[in-house]
Amino acid sequence: MKTKSTYLLLWILTGLLLSCADDAKRFEIGVSQCSEDIWRDKFNEELRTGAYAYDGVTLHFASADDSDERQIQQINQFVSRGVDLIIAAPNQTNTINEALENAQRHHIPVIVYDRKSGGNHHTAYIGADNREIGRQMGHYIATRLRGRGRVVEVMGLRGSSPAIERHEGFMEALKRYPGIEVAGTLQGDWTQLSAEQAMRRFLKQEGAGKIDFVFGQNDRMAMGARDAIMAHDLLSTTLFCGVDALATKGGGLEQVRDGLLEASYIYPTHGDEVMDLAMKILNRRPFHRETKLKSALVTRENANVLLLQAEEISRQSDDLNTLHGRINDYLSRYNAQRWLLIMGGIIVVLLVAAIFMTYRYYYERIRINEERERMQERQLDFFTNVSHEIRTPLTLIADPINHIVNRGHLKDHDFDTLRSTARNANELMKLVSNILDFKKVEFDTSGKRIDMHENVSDDNVPQLESMAVETRENTENKGLDSLLIVDDNDDIRHYLRVVLHNRFHILEAANGEEGLRQAREHVPALIISDIMMPVMNGLELCQHLKSDTATSHIPVILLTAKSEDSQVAEGYKSGADSYITKPFSSQVLMARIDNIMQGRERMRRLYAMQMVSATNEPVTPDPSDSKSGEQPQLSLRDQEFINHLHDIIRRHLEENEFSVEALGSEIGLSRVQLYRKVKALTGLSPVELLRKTRLNQADNLLKTTGMNISEVAYAVGFTSPSYFSKCFKDEFGVQPKSLSS
After folding, report:
1. What is the 3-state secondary structure (H, E, C) of 655-713?
2. What distance in Å separates the CA atoms of residue 706 and residue 712, rounded to the nearest whole number?
3. Distance CA 40, CA 267 (A)
4. What is the phi/psi pair of residue 398, to 5°?
5. Is the dihedral of CA 261, 265, 267, 272 positive or negative?
6. Confidence (pTM)
7. Which of 111, 296, 361, 536 has the largest count of CB atoms under 10 Å?
8. How far is CA 124 from CA 25, 114, 354, in A?
9. Among 372, 473, 107, 113, which residue's Cα sits nearest to residue 267?
10. How far apart are CA 78 and CA 103, in angstroms?
């Protein structure tokens, strides 16, 4: 009956939770950018804004920094993560097709935008018509030059589809103007510096001649070419135009307005349209497989108007972001209140179920007692017979265990003893089971018991042997400090465990994010971490640890294959306490650990002594308390924590109601966090620290003032002079009256 009640309760709770579940679909979208620049930042921001219109959309951004290999790796990571859709801007044509094909095999739709992939492993493409942009700019230049002049083109990254298509459109337009000479086609990589360097090389060539117009395939390269030409000839009359026309500070729109460029062509981002396309695909609605975004030519005549429009759009976007933040805040509050109501309902159900089960249990006990009274005579005979069988296994269990307990540690041969103990415990369990299930024992007509325990199985033996192994491990780890190893290499973690398991209780994590979680949960005495890891690297982990008050005191040893001075400096800058390069010697590692742990112990003694002293001076380390010149130094955060703690205790010393909870609340830590932090820095618990500080202040008052014992007791926060006297004697070994004047 009790089991049925439990099932009923679980069914009710499950129904409650399911009724509160959110039915909205949730999608994760991975965005793979080929590089980072202002144009792509604008696209990413528009993508985020576009996501506001859809519930449950999470965006994950990654930049390949112009590396084909890194972009392939990032797309494959999105696939492994199981995202619902991938948006990718290829670095170059035909470089990421393998990764896109991998996504296709895993049934993950792919939107290629801005640059074309060169393959057919995508669900849709959206971007500007780069060939048309090239044609429009070629026609504009030829018209400005009235059909005659010398022109230089600066192309973008070799192999990228926008560079190829803009060049083809540009050359196609100029074919209609035989008086236009293309004096040179220079190779850049979309950056201003690449164009400046290419133009400088061109101008040094013999016969470079006068250049009437320069077409940079983006505004940055147009400005780079301009810098090179003006440096070559400050009075040059060469004209310049580009592509992008960004409305940012120092962007193409301002450059056209200010006359630095003659013209630019808006290269649309339209992240919101890309988001709309993504949601059509995810929600299985009709969509166009190829979408070409509209664009327009920017000249000095319309640049100012476009800038004003862009500023207004930017202001509205900021307002939208603010509104979205407020809505998220309201939704968070609503969800918190909803879950409070749900939990309240669950508690009510649990209380009702507990009352019901207690009622059932009460009447079940009455029935069992009545049954026991009826069987008492027959049980008496049974207990008499079985008592002899119990004594033997009890002897074989109790004596070996007592022997091991008295010795205080386990040896290898003790496992044979424990296995024997397990077998005898199993025999005892068989007998106990028969006793507890006595009502199931059948009797013949003469009143004699029919023996049923020969058929009891030995299933408990492996379980008890497993318990014996766990007992040995727990005994070995008892009293050891914990040490967290963070490394994505299984072999390294295994090797370090073998080296250190006799000294520490070992915790492991395979990346920095998991390591940070374990550090906050367990607060180990020491952390050894690799630097190069997925998800979160060792430097980021160290920075997170050292910026968190709850973990900033934990010493960190970084392991890495990087040995350059600048790289070592980077490790120390992140807050690391030591830095060991691979391959490393276990003896060196142990020596570093010993130095750190000994330094921390000296530091604990120092700060414990100074924290509880009767002076009001801030806590500072004493340089004379050092060995081999290696004085342990606290970080600025921990130094401020110690001084703040010292100040709080001093200010509240006379308050008898000032508790550890109040101390933690004022300093901004929970009771558990405060305990671990103070214990690690001083070797004392907060309660011990508060008591010792009060008693040291009392000792000072008794020796330096004419106050009596009661006055001193109340002055340092004790409510009872007699209890104060007991604590004082426990601390100093003498009664306070022996010091009172």
Report:
1. CCCCCHHHHHHHHCCCHHHHHHHHHHHHCCCHHHHHHHHHHHHHHHHHHHCCCCHHHHH
2. 10
3. 11
4. -65, -45
5. positive
6. 0.41
7. 111
8. 22, 12, 58
9. 113
10. 9
Alpha-helical runs (H) found in 437-528: 460-477, 490-500, 512-522
Residues 6+ apart with CB under 8 A from 247: 253, 306, 307, 310, 311, 314
Chain-centre distance for alpha carbon 237: 56
Amino acid at 704: T
Ranges of H-type helices in 705-737: 709-715, 721-732
User: What does the block give as tokens for 10?
Assistant: 């679980």
Q: How far is CA 452 from CA 374, 431, 437, 440, in A?
A: 22, 10, 11, 10
∠ Cα 406 408 414 (to 5°) = 90
Tokens describing residue 135: 């044609």
Phi, psi of 291 (to 5 degrees): -125, 125
State the chain's maximal CA–CA distance in angstroms.
Answer: 129
Confirm if 306 and 247 have CB atoms less than 8 A apart. Answer: yes
| Distances 572 to 252, 322, 530, 538, 543 between C-alpha atoms, Å | 42, 38, 14, 12, 10
The pair of three-digit structure tokens given for residue 571, joined into one six-digit string = 């490790």
- Segments in 175-294 forming alpha helices (H): 192-204, 219-232, 252-257, 271-282
CA neighbours closer than 13 Å in the CB half-sphere of residue 417 = 16
| Cβ atoms 633, 553 nearer than 8 A | no
**186 and 202 Cβ atoms separated by less than 8 Å:** yes
**Is the separation of the CB atoms in 181 and 209 below 8 Å?**
no
Q: 530 — phi, psi (to 5°)?
A: -75, 165
Model pLDDT for residues 203-236, shown as the tens digit of each residue: 999 878 899 999 999 999 999 999 999 999 888 9
Phi then psi for residue 307, to 5 deg, are -65, -45
The whole-angstrom separation of Cα 567 and Cα 571 is 6
Question: Within 10 Å of residue 620's Cβ, how many Cβ atoms?
Answer: 13
For residue 120, give both structure tokens: 């057919």
Angstrom distance (rounded) from CA 43 to CA 138 = 27
Token output for 59: 């965006």
Only one residue has tokens 């790289």, namely 567
Per-residue model confidence as pLDDT tens digits over 251-275:
999 999 999 999 999 988 888 899 9
Strands 85-88 and 110-113: parallel
Residues with Cβ < 8 Å from 427, sequence gap 6 or more? 393
Cβ-count burial 172-209 (b if 16+ within 10 Å, e if not) = ebbeebeebeebbbbebbbbbebbbebbbebbeeeebe
Among residues 532, 543, 530, which one has the least CA distance to residue 574? Answer: 543
* Residue 89, both tokens: 């801007």
The alpha carbon of 401 is separated from its chain's Cα centroid by a whole number of angstroms, namely 45
Per-residue pLDDT at 633: 66
pLDDT tens per residue across span 641-695: 888 888 888 888 888 888 888 888 888 888 877 888 888 888 888 888 888 888 9
Give me the amino acid identity at 19. S
Classify residue 263 as exposed, middle or buried by CB count within 10 Å of its CB (0-12, 13-18, 19+).
Answer: buried
pLDDT band of 247, cuts 50, 70, 90: confident
Query: What are the φ and ψ backbone dihedral angles of 268, each rounded to 5 degrees?
Result: -70, 140
Distance of CA 728 to CAs 310, 605, 656, 714, Å?
75, 21, 16, 13
β-bridge pairing 263-265 and 297-299:
antiparallel
Q: Which residue has the higher pLDDT, 613 or 730?
A: 730
Q: CB-side exposure of 597: number of CA atoms within 13 Å? A: 16
Query: Strand 57-63 and strand 504-509: pairing?
Result: unpaired
CA distance 724 to 60: 61
Are 525 and 556 in contact by the 8 Å Cβ rule? The answer is no
The residues that bridge with 31 in the sheet, in sequence order, are: 61, 87
**Gap between the Cα atoms of 593 and 556, Å rounded:** 10
pLDDT at residue 167 tops 50: yes
Has residue 142 got a pLDDT over 50? yes
